[in-house]
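Q: How would the structure tokens look for this protein?
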Amino acid sequence: MFTGKTYWLIGASEGLGRALAGLLAAEGAHMILSARNADRLEALAATLPHARALPMDVTDSASVQAAVADLGEIDGVIYCAGAYEPMTAQDWDVDQALKVSEVNFTGALRSLGHVVPQMADRGSGHIVLIGSLAGFRGLPGAIGYSASKGALMQLAENLYMDLRGTGVKVQQINPGFIKTRLTEKNSFDMPFILSPEDAAARTLKAMKSRRFATSFPWPMAAFFRLGSVLPIRLFRRMLS
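A: Here is the predicted structure in token form.
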């Protein structure tokens, strides 16, 4: 289903995005790789067939517009850009919280708005938004991150509602902990943590399915799914 299709992967330089780029290329997809780190993108593109680097900063409208001007027609877009800073309400860093929100959510609005209408007009396309289990409910120490991932997940629902029946496939994929430079910032235990390669394989499997939403790994997904419908005081007790 990916052979000869062109996918724009936003957030391709590290972690899940980098691993997913390799898997999609192995499936025959032509990859356009975006992130801020041009050197990392070029190095990755050089290892993949039919891949090119398209550096872009999702927090900068001019950078996004310049990338879109060089994009060409695409068959799919994957929004995998992510930022994270552990932060409590007591230690709120306004600039860092805004940066996290800009990367995780506002950057998706800034990027997808240039390509989704064209997909709708032609009646085909594939949109994948990488959410997080942390987006199901507000979490301690996650000012900026949890709310922005929740917003991205709801954006996926907005797109699904608007585009159902148009020929454009919309999917929301919500991983748990992935071993990356971002999770290295955490000082707490991270149960069921996945390697980027494992998370990418699960993401690719979800992309091949007809499901709108896929969350993994299942023990963590079940916990957060249940927690999203419990009274918040009870959910807080469960976390502690």
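The chain has a mean pLDDT of 95.

The first strand starts at residue 6 and ends at 10.

Upvote if useful.
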